[in-house]
Amino acid sequence: MSLDLPRSAILVLDRLASEGPMTPKDISNKVDLAPRTISFALRKLLGQKLCRKIPNLQDMRQPLYMADPDKARELRMKYEHIFRQVLI
């Protein structure tokens, strides 16, 4: 597994892994990035199978995104130095 992720995707993955499933709007508010940037980050994470999209039974218009905890942990351990730089 290589770290071919933009800074925004690392921030989103870290937030999803630590706080659990969220809507793109919730993620945008938590990491203080534009909704368009969040969409780009989520597409990257989905493409590398680091997160998945699940139905939001509270509001079907807003899907939830959930990090794959094992892959997120493995990625963080392998690239801890990069995560540390991005998350500061």
Q: What's the gist of this structure?
A:
The chain has five helices and two strands, in the order αααββαα. It is mainly alpha-helical and 88 residues long. The two termini are 23 Å apart.
Give structural notes.
The chain has 88 residues and is mainly α. The chain has one domain (7-87): Orthogonal Bundle (Arc Repressor Mutant, subunit A). The chain has five helices and two strands. It has helices spanning 7-19, 24-31, 35-47, 69-78, 80-87; strands at 51-54, 64-67. It has a two-stranded antiparallel ribbon with strand order 1-2. Helix 1 (7-19) crosses helix 3 and helix 2 packs across helix 3. The radius of gyration is 12 Å and the shape is globular. The two termini are 23 Å apart.
Number of domains: 1
What's the helical proportion of residues?
55-70%
Radius of gyration: 12 Å
Return the CATH topology.
Arc Repressor Mutant, subunit A
* Overall 3D shape: globular
Residues in β-strands, percent:
5-15%
Arithmetic mean of pLDDT: 89
Distance from N terminus to C terminus (CA atoms, Å) equals 23 Å
Largest sheet: 2 strands, antiparallel
Structural class: mainly alpha
**Helix and strand succession?**
HHHEEHH
Present the secondary structure layout.
Layout: H1 7-19, H2 24-31, H3 35-47, E1 51-54, E2 64-67, H4 69-78, H5 80-87
Antiparallel strand pairs: 1-2
Helix pairs in contact: 1-3, 2-3
List keywords for this structure.
Arc Repressor Mutant, subunit A, two-stranded antiparallel sheet, mainly alpha, 88 residues, single chain
